[in-house]
């Protein structure tokens, strides 16, 4: 979440003034991802794509949620790229402390409205680099900033901050549109680049009929020796924002309905849900002052910034006894989990140094065990300390 500055002048410039980005496109990329391996950490790089997420019998499966990293924030300043380095450090620390089996990038991986380069995949790559470097598989979902249109910083209009970089004189239209375009990098371009270059990526482009909503898919978590009997299904949904409204559409709800009914008709296998923007139901369970039982968390500093409309996904979730919990990001100042009917509604923890708010950074961790099935969660902070442990299964 982050308020957009209203720059009507931007739209004027969008068509009339073209900038060449080349000389500003290098910020942020020169810093190699810091390798912060803890003592004794063995990094085994996996080089082959796996069809399932695998769980070893009697071993828990641990997931780290990286939410709201906001890479590429104010990339034209010194401050911006420094935040990216800080965010890399947060992720590296969390990965060293927890050594998770899997990472979920929970949206707002980048701040596209601040990224003045044609190909925001460069920032996306930087954001996933600590996980990739450790050979840990991951999946991503989109937030409302990942494909937002580039917004011009107002300073660039006031002396002496006038853009020095322009495309060759524009007459009717910008020459070489692809060089001057402000449309940003689309969800599809981002996800295609991610999938194409990363065997460890478990992200999917989702069914075509749901586009422009892209990150709609399900991953099977199964025992290594028995891939055909899933232990849990992880559902990823695109809650919109950026290039289209902040909603989970009724078409997505229908997709969820038919998918769950097909692969888990009797609700026997537990289901865990991930998306970026909290649904309006989060407002119903939000603790009023502080955080008190049955909610568990450490910061409750904002109002829930919910999706724009209700379109039926929550109704479907509460009707399925197999749905155990929903995890969202978006609100950087909230990190609680609250029960709602048979499931839990949880916020992740703001992981990135980009984006608003200066609450200490961390990552929500989930630990899934199979026999009996349970989900335990806690928050691991950048400095190593752990808090807000909660069991999300009865
Ligand atoms: C964007 O960058 C990615 C790598 O970060 C690259 O694979 C892809 O080809 C680039 N796309 C364009 C259109 O330049
Ligand atoms: C812009 O292009 C049009 C034709 O496309 C031409 O008539 C006009 O003179 C051009 N204006 C300038 C300022 O070059
Ligand atoms: C879900 O699917 C079932 C079976 O196809 C159907 O009867 C039901 O109305 C659907 N629910 C919603 C909310 O679409
Ligand atoms: C996941 O599990 C379901 C139900 O067992 C199965 O139908 C589906 O093919 C599995 N998907 C993959 C990719 O193995």
UniProtKB/TrEMBL annotation:
Pfam families for the chain: Metallophos
Keywords: Signal
Residues of the signal peptide: 1-26
Keyword Cell division: no
GO MF term list: hydrolase activity, acting on ester bonds
Domain (Calcineurin-like phosphoesterase): residue spans on this chain: 61-332
CDD domains reported for this sequence: MPP_Dcr2
GO terms for cellular component: cytoplasm
Superkingdom per UniProt: Eukaryota
Name this polypeptide is given: Calcineurin-like phosphoesterase domain-containing protein
